[in-house]
Amino acid sequence: MAKRQSFADKASKKKHEVICPVCNQAVQYTLVVAPEPVSGGKSFKMRSRNVGICKCNEKSVLA
After folding, report:
1. pLDDT tens track for 16-29
2. Is residue 27 within 8 Å of residue 52, measured between CB atoms?
3. For residue 14, what pLDDT is reported?
């Protein structure tokens, strides 16, 4: 049987954070959805991707 996990064990777990080497801030991953034209040119397809955002690239990614 598996060991029962207490609340203190859950709260003390290390969080997995990625630190940006340029600005030394934590990177937050965000889902960015952008329209992409279909080969016919009359309609669009929505493209979604996960992007890491920190202080140094926030304006360029979200603009």
Report:
1. 788 999 999 999 99
2. yes
3. 73
Q: What is the DSSP letter of 12?
A: T
CA distance 30 to 2: 34
Q: Are 54 and 30 in contact (CB under 8 A)?
A: no
Q: Which residues pair with 51 in a beta bridge?
A: 30
Beta carbons within 8 Å of 56's beta carbon, 6+ residues apart: 20, 22, 23, 25
Specify the DSSP element, H or E, that contains 10. Answer: helix 7-11
Residue 36 · residue 45 · CB < 8 Å:
yes
Whether the predicted model's global pTM rises above the 0.70 cut: no
- Residue in the structure block whose two tokens are 């493209």: 47
Distance CA 28, CA 14 (A): 16
